[in-house]
């Protein structure tokens, strides 16, 4: 299992605590230090069955001086590039189990789903 996290984030710390309590084996990707590529983000979005604006922290865009593209299929690539260029805009934590199950682990149900998948 892999978890994309920001150690300063309380939701990330909660996810790590839950993974540890479940005895789950996982690797940590500090995505602000090791930003995901466009391909990484596209792969995660495919597994999540989401569009890039669904995993974007849009409220943080203004503070980064970022202008958000329209939420349209035509702008999908621009959104993915934006997330790759500004990883602070990516929701966290994102967890991917070895079977490919992927969640944005901000709630107990999502965490339970990915832990069960291993």
UniProtKB/TrEMBL annotation:
**Gene3D superfamilies hit by this protein:** Glutaredoxin
InterPro entries for this protein: Arsenate_reductase-like, Thioredoxin-like_sf
SUPFAM superfamilies named among the record's database cross-references: Thioredoxin-like (SSF52833)
One Pfam family named in its UniProt record: ArsC
Family statement drawn from the similarity comment of this UniProt entry: Belongs to the ArsC family.
What is the protein name for this chain? Arsenate reductase
Q: Which organism is it from?
A: Nocardioides jejuensis
The root-end lineage is: Bacteria, Bacillati, Actinomycetota, Actinomycetes, Propionibacteriales
């Amino acid at each position: 299992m892999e978890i994309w996290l920001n150690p300063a984030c309380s939701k990330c710390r909660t996810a790590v605590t839950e993974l540890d309590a479940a005895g789950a084996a996982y690797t940590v990707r500090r995505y602000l230090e090791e930003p995901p590529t466009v391909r990484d983000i596209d792969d995660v979005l495919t597994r999540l069955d989401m569009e890039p604006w669904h995993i974007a922290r849009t409220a943080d865009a203004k503070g980064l001086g970022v202008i958000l593209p329209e939420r349209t299929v035509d702008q999908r690539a621009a959104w993915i590039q934006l997330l790759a260029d500004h990883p602070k805009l990516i929701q966290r934590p994102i967890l991917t189990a070895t079977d490919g199950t992927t969640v944005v682990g901000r709630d107990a149900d999502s965490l339970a789903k990915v832990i069960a998948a291993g």
